Amino acid sequence: MELYNTLTQKKEEFVPHTPGQVKMYTCGPTVYHYAHIGNLRSYIMEDVLEKYLRYAGYQVDRVMNITDVGHRRGQNAGRRPPGAQDRAADRPVLHRRLL
């Protein structure tokens, strides 16, 4: 499998540091507002990559951060979208246990 290396700006053959094992640190969905394709694109790509690596026989350990409201600045800083508190209470916390 080849992946694009942004440092070298070239496609390079994927070689894990530890044979047969891949460790991934990925960005999860941004949860401070409504979901849209812009903040889900990278999450979906990383999920597909993880599934492919498992299919290819790698042991995959994945850690995902979840962005919260603390990083926002500007006009909407500190504001919650209408009904956000009500919606948040109805949603389970995203948790993934790595096997």
Question: Can you give a write-up of this model?
Answer:
This protein is an alpha+beta fold and 99 residues long. 26% of the residues lie in helices and 27% in strands. It has 2 helices and 4 strands; from the N terminus they run βββαβα. The protein has helices at 37-55, 84-90, and strands spanning 2-5, 10-13, 21-30, 59-67. The strands form 2 sheets. Strands 1-2 form a two-stranded antiparallel ribbon. A two-stranded parallel ribbon has the order 3-4. The chain is globular and about 45 Å long. The two termini are 24 Å apart. The model is unreliable at 86-99 (pLDDT under 50).
- Topology as a string of helices (H) and strands (E): EEEHEH
Class by SSE composition = alpha+beta
Please report the total strand number as a whole number: 4
Tell me the span between the first and last alpha carbons.
Answer: 24 Å
